[in-house]
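Q: Got a minute? One more chain.
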Amino acid sequence: MLRSMLAENYRSLRSIRMDLGQVNLFVGENGTGKSNLYRSLQLVQAAARGTLASEIAAEGGMASVLWTGRRKPNEPVRVRLEAEILDEERAITFRYGIEAGLRPPAAAGFAFEPQIKTEELSIETGRRPVTVLKRAGPGIMVRGETGRMEEHPEQALTSETALSLLGDAGHYPEIGAFRRAVLQWRFFHGFRTDRDSPLRQPCLSVTAPMLDEDGGNLAAVFATLAHIRQDTVDLERAIADAFEGARLSILEPGEFASFGLVFPQFPKRLFQPRELSDGQIRFLALAAALLSYRSPPLVALNEPEASLHPSMLAPLAAMIASASRTSQVWLVTHSELLAREVESRCGVRARRVIRNDGATWIEGMRLSGEIAEDEA
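A: Always. Here it is, folded:
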């Protein structure tokens, strides 16, 4: 479970830290920075994957993503991200932080790529925190088999993360465990719905426990639920509620997996994915994301209401509530209707995102950056 997050100097996020729960609902108007909160979590995952530099470069480079408002004198110009994860089964708390900044004038590296300045991963098992990875510049210190910090023989490039470099090496189980947990997060934002969208195409018949972030294995996710788990009750209920009694038809896969919809007014007609409206195909993708065979530890949805008819929002909220029984949910929306539906089904209060002196802020947040449960 992701217990807390911090983001500093990233776009509109001057400095924001918050404790998190099972369902985290953020609502606000366009331009308040809701998506930057969502994106900051994606960048933590990018650090674990080893793609932080390329993802920031794709946003326009460090000069484009840095906070441009007022700063304190002599304050380092750096993006700072932190995440705290609780492994409940092993009673271990992981804390990871990373700072990235601009390339010094005389340093090696490309002008617009981020330069990793510091990284640190610590664990806590009931006693004081123990550092297992610490990086400053290219040098990496890591906790060895003796329990002492020792210098890693390989230095990191300024644009690569020590977390990705050491996380799959097999020698550092704590680093690997944290990295694997973060890589299982799923982020869903803006499914393509054009004619050539992956959602509208058949896919190879390969067991699919979770939906890919681009939705390219949508048909395989449905086939896995229908023909391997043999349980589509929640899926069928959601589709019937959203599409006025429609039924999902999932054929036994051959080389490729495929599906279609049967509507009550056309009981003998199978509508293929290419025939469905943008809202219909997007709702089906959300259903696969939220009701898949295996539950990711974190499901993050950014404005999932896009293209959906208002009548689909209550069924969407019901799916979110169902998913929250096994996954932590992060939901960003500007739909007040969807927010109310999620609030009533999940027993949470929406965190209203606002602008405060140009920076993204959460209404009611304390000066410490924490939000008490009775204020969330």
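A: The two ends are 18 Å apart (CA to CA).
Q: Perfect, thanks.
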